[in-house]
Amino acid sequence: MVLAVRWPALVLAVLALGATLWDGLDDRGTALAFGALVAVGELARWSGARERESAPLGAAGALAYALLGENAGHPTGHGALQVVAVVVAAALIGCVPHVARGREPTLDHLARRVLTVAFAAVCFQPLHNRGRLLEWGGPALALLLVALLVLTTLWDAVLAAASAHARTRWPFGPLLRDELRATLGIGSAVCATGVVMSLAVAVAGLWALPVFSLPLLLTQLSFRRYAAVRATYRQTIASLARATEIAGYTPAGHARRVAALSRAVGRELGLSESDLTVLEYAALMHDIGQLSLVDPVPSGATAALPPEEQRRIALLGGAVVRQTGVAAAVAVVVERQADPYREQPVPARIVRAVNAYEEFAREAGPSGPLAALEKLRLATARDYQPEVVESLARVLSRPGLTLPRAG
Q: Which residues contact 333 (CB under 8 A, 6 or more apart)?
């Protein structure tokens, strides 16, 4: 499935580079200017961030070149293949430091960039080079650019979701939904900036590029700071969750394993990105109510406790979470993880089932995973939602699943 996204991009890139080397560059100054912009954008890209677009300057510059029809009032002569060739060459140059440092996913990022730019260029450049846009006039050009903006944004969302699905095997539908939601933010802003940049170059020439690049660089800096704040926030929650391990109430690594597995099950069930974040934080802090107990539960195994005792610990945990300043939605999940599953929100159902699986598997020894799943299935009529248990089974059956180790 990964090759289904990468192979078309590779074939298109080789074809474009070969045709451009054979025919030579048209408007070399323009090609070099936009190539430099894309390369700088890729150099400034940061990896490991969860934001949808990690290189907004490179994306906007590539799209602007794909939609460029004039330079300071003079028609340009490059075609769609040259657009792809220039973007590929510039992106490869900009990605060299990232490849040298072993950062991922470089290949998926490049494939998505190539296919998105090719889509925009194929839709625009043939019409411009045949003079059709001049025949239609200004309003038609404006409408065409708006339509291309919408279509390119949707196409980019589909490619991003397909790449993520191929890489992680998460359901395609929820991934596409999250990508489409993201188009209301950075995705549409980058595409709109690319369109405006191409129009500005058509009127003012290449001097418009640095003018429109500065706001994108500042935006990228702001996103980096926001990502750093989110990472610090998550680390704070993870540190709070470790309090039960340090105090000896729960086994080492239990909260992290429950959080990782809960997020995977949430993905399988199609939860949105915001719900997954709440789920992950609640899973990290699901046992924090045990700190209020005078006598610790043996091995921290709450799944085998009477329902009344489970609810008491859950309510104590929710109260602790509220005192920490974490989002109220996280406290609600922690509080309701011991309720009858038909009355629980979906994140609480997931946390309850995954926590029980982790405890049952630990107690069962070598046959732990299979025995734990069987125990969960036998209790689906009363304690655990069947859909959650089956999603958990599918996640566990996938090869390559890695969970945090103890300690």
A: 278, 279, 282, 286, 345, 347, 348, 351
| Of the candidates 44, 89, 47, 43, the residue with the CA atom closest to the CA atom of residue 65 | 89
Spatial CA neighbour of 309 closest among 375, 262, 317: 317
Spatial distance between the Cα atoms of 107 and 9, rounded to a whole number of angstroms = 10
Contact 267, 338 (CB under 8 A): no
Residues 337/313, Cβ–Cβ less than 8 Å: no
Asked whether 53 and 119 are in contact (CB, 8 A), the reply is no
Q: Give the pair of three-digit tokens for residue 282.
A: 């609640």
Question: Considering just the CA atoms, what is the radius of gyration of the chain in Å?
Answer: 26
Distance (Å, rounded) from C-alpha 147 to C-alpha 15? 27
Using one digit for the tens of pLDDT, what is the confidence trace for 32-51? 999 999 988 888 776 544 44
pLDDT in tens, 271-307: 888 889 999 999 999 888 888 777 778 777 788 788 8
Measure CA 306 to chain center: 40
Cβ neighbors of 396 (< 8 A, separation 6 or more) are 369, 373
Asked if 303 and 248 count as a contact pair (C-beta separation under 8 A), the reply is: no
- DSSP annotation of 71: E
Among residues 244, 262, 236, 197, the alpha carbon closest in space to that of 30 is found at: 197
How far, in Å, CA of 255 to CA of 296, rounded? 16
The 10s digit of each residue's pLDDT in 361-396 is 887 666 678 888 888 888 887 888 999 999 999 888
In angstroms, rounded to a whole number, what is the distance separating the alpha carbons of residues 402 and 237? 21
The DSSP line for 173-193 is: HHHHHHHHHHIIIIIHHHHHH
* Cα–Cα distance, 84 to 191 (Å, whole number): 17
Instruction: Please give the single-letter amino acid code of residue 380.
Output: T
Return the pLDDT at 143.
Answer: 77
> In angstroms, rounded to a whole number, what is the distance separating the alpha carbons of residues 199 and 197?
5
